[in-house]
């Protein structure tokens, strides 16, 4: 009977402490003076850093993110909760603070700050806490994870304090140690560094600035400052459109938290001609000797004549070319084999 009464008392005590805590947590943010036993610094200097520390009750974590936050959407804190704390659920609370004075350090134990979130550790052996720094964070809550509101003052670091919020707990509980792993959560995005170079032809160099104007589209969406773009991971399509250069199309892939470099060399709008023929063939373009090459040569729009001289054979082809097109003239010399009775 005494055991049952004790359990009922403990249960009521837990409920009372939890109700008090929830009331405080539901109230608007307010500033308070408090003291911690020690401050545990966690410096995440790279986006792939993952640091594990141990914290006791009445300790505090001070977590700083890398300087370059381009790919970071949140801070993730993973807790391994001792069985005793999980059994005495809601006995230990964690609080996130902002606008701290003085600046957190291992040498300062007394602080004045604004409490912006308060909750208790659940009756489970693990908990993942996500503190977003941007609206790009899209991971949803689960039974084992909690997402806090967007923390705007993240450049000054995250100060998370642990404290006992229930009386009458075993003394051994106050000596419990939490194992906490901190790491940045990366956006599902990567960066595109795009360079677009004009052609080297004299015709291109004589164009005015307005004539050199190009339009850039990524996935059919116009882009103004195309040099550096932050894009979602996966395959993308690039289009470079101009009235005075050839349209250029490219397909590229973006990987998470990585930079993809893409260079596009513009080509003039004048027609291009490739001439292919057997060795020792003499080639004339509009009666002017030229060299046969797989590399296209620029020609003018209109009618042109290509003449091949191979030994005693002469072959002439006439073609009509348009701006923005590439043409290929290929002389094939073949032999046929037939069977006769």
Q: Could you walk me through the main structural features you see in this protein, from its secondary elements to its overall organization?
A:
It is built from four helices and 25 strands. The protein is mainly β and 341 residues long. The longest helix is centred in the first third of the chain and has 25 residues, at 2-26. It is elongated, with a radius of gyration of 36 Å.
What brief labels describe this structure?
about 350 residues; six-stranded mixed sheet; 4 helices; five-stranded mixed sheet; about 50% strand; mainly beta
In short:
This protein is mainly β and 341 residues long.
Helix content: 10-25%
Strand order of the largest sheet: 1-7-6-10-4-2
SSE pattern, N- to C-terminal: HEEEEEHEEEEEHEEHEEEEEEEEEEEEE
Approximate strand percentage: over 45%
Uncertain segments are 1-20, 22-28
Query: What form results from the Cα inertia axes?
Result: elongated
Count of helical stretches: 4
SSE-based structural type: mainly beta
Report the count of strand segments. 25
For the sheet with most strands, the description reads: 6 strands, mixed
Radius of gyration using CA atoms only: 36 Å
User: Mean of the pLDDT scores?
Assistant: 87
Question: Layout of SSEs?
Answer:
Blueprint lengths: L1 H25 L3 E6 L3 E5 L7 E6 L3 E5 L7 E9 L2 H5 L4 E10 L8 E11 L5 E7 L12 E3 L10 E7 L6 H4 L2 E10 L2 E9 L4 H4 L9 E4 L2 E3 L4 E5 L1 E8 L6 E7 L4 E7 L6 E5 L5 E4 L2 E3 L2 E6 L3 E9 L2 E9 L4 E5 L11
């Amino acid at each position: 009977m005494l055991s049952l009464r004790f359990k009922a008392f403990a249960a009521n005590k837990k409920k009372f402490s939890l109700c008090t805590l929830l009331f405080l947590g539901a109230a608007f943010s307010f500033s308070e003076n408090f003291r911690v036993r020690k401050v545990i610094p966690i410096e995440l200097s790279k986006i792939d850093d993952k640091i594990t520390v141990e914290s006791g009750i009445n300790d505090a974590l001070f977590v700083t993110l890398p300087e370059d936050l381009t790919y970071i959407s949140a801070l993730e804190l993973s807790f391994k909760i001792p069985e005793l704390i999980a059994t005495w659920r809601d006995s230990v609370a964690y609080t996130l603070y902002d606008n701290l004075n003085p600046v957190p350090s291992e040498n300062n134990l007394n602080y004045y700050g604004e409490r912006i979130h308060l909750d208790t550790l659940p009756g489970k052996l693990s908990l993942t806490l996500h503190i977003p720094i941007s609206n790009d964070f899209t991971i949803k809550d689960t039974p084992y994870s909690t997402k806090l509101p967007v923390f705007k003052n993240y450049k000054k670091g995250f100060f998370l304090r642990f404290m006992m919020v229930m009386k009458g707990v075993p003394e051994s509980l106050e000596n419990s140690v939490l194992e906490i792993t901190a790491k940045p959560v990366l956006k599902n995005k990567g960066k595109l560094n795009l360079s677009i170079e004009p052609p080297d032809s004299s015709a291109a160099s004589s164009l005015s600035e307005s004539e050199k104007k190009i339009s850039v589209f990524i996935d059919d969406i116009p882009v103004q400052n195309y040099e550096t773009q932050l894009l979602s991971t996966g395959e993308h399509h690039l289009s470079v459109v101009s009235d005075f250069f050839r349209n250029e199309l490219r397909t590229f892939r973006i990987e998470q938290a990585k930079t993809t470099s893409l260079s596009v060399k513009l080509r003039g709008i004048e027609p291009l001609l490739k001439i292919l023929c057997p060795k020792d063939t003499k080639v004339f373009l509009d009666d002017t000797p030229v060299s046969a090459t797989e590399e296209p040569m620029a020609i003018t729009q209109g009618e042109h004549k290509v003449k091949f001289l191979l030994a005693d054979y002469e072959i002439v082809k006439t073609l009509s070319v348009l701006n923005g097109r590439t043409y290929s003239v290929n002389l094939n010399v073949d032999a046929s084999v037939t069977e006769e009775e």
